[in-house]
Amino acid sequence: MEYLYEMHAHVKEVSTCAGAFAEKLVECYTDKGYAGLVLTDHMNRSTFRVPKLENIPWDEKVDHFLTGFNTVKKAAEGKFNVLLGMEINFYNHPNDYLVYGVTEEFLRSHGDLMAMKPKEFSEIAHENGLLMIQAHPFRRGMKVENWQILDGYEVFNGNPRHHSSNEMATEWAKFHNKNIVTSGSDFHEPEDMGIGGIYFKTPIETNEDLLRELRSGNYRLKITDIPYTRPE
Predict the structure, then answer these.
(1) Which of 89, 111, 120, 210 has the fewest Cβ atoms within 10 Å of its own Cβ atom?
(2) What is the 3 state secondary structure string of 59-97?
C-alpha cells in the first residue's frame, strides 16, 4: 500500500500569489486519494509587503505566516494530515527553497530568516534537522544553487503556468548524486490540484516521519503531463 502526499502547496491567507483559500484547498484534496500534504506557504518579501505587516516585529510576522497552516489543519481535521513547511526566498536572491521539518519554534528562534544568505540558512536548518530543497531550480529567473548546501532538488514542479524544465532538474540531481528528490503540484489555484506529490510506503503523520522517509529514498514520485495554460 502507498500513501500519497502533496509536497508543495500555498493558500491565499498567506501566499499573496495564491488564488485559493485554505478551505478551498481542503475541498480540492478531499477524496482525491491524498493522505496528506505539506503546506509550503511563501516566506518571502511579498508575504509581508502590506502596511499592517511590513514593519511589525518578527514574532508577529510568524503569527501571520502560521494562519494559513492553522486554518488548513483545522479544515482538514478528520480528512487528511497536514504538516508545516515553507518556501523561503531570501532578500536580494532569486531562488526559492522548500524547507521540510519546519516547526513554530524554529520559525521564532532565529529572527528574520529571509535576511540570511542561503549558506547561513542551510547551516541553521541542518543544525535543527531540517531539509532544504531547491524548488524548480531550472525555472526561468532561477539560479542553480551550490549543490553542497542543499539536501536535494524539486525535480517535478506541476505549476501549469510556469515552464520549470523538470527534465533538467532530474538530470542535475542525478549528476550530483542527490537522493532526495521531490515532486509537488505547486498548488495556487484549484486547477493545480493533484498534479504532483510523493507516494510513501508508510503513513506520514509527523515531521519526524516525513524527514525519515525522505532521507530513506524509499518512495516514488507522482508525475503528470502538465497542461500549460499560458507562457511565463
Answers:
(1) 111
(2) HHHHHHHHHHHHHHHHHHCCCCEEEEEEEECCCCCCCCE
Extract the C-alpha cell encoding 221. Answer: 514520485
Q: Strands 219-222, 180-184: parallel, antiparallel or unpaired by DSSP?
A: unpaired
The three cell numbers locating residue 214: 525522505
CATH code, domain carrying 181 = 3.20.20.140
Write down the H helix ranges in the chain.
22-29, 51-54, 58-76, 104-109, 118-127, 166-175, 207-216
For the chain, the domain total comes to: 1
DSSP class of residue 7?
-
End-to-end Cα separation, the chain, in angstroms: 38
- Summarize pLDDT for 94-118 with one digit per residue, the tens: 999 999 999 999 999 999 999 999 9
- Cα angle 103, 104, 109 (rounded to 5 degrees) comes to 100
pLDDT digits (tens, 9 = 90+) for 6-27: 999 999 999 999 999 999 999 9
- Boundaries of domain holding 134: 3-222
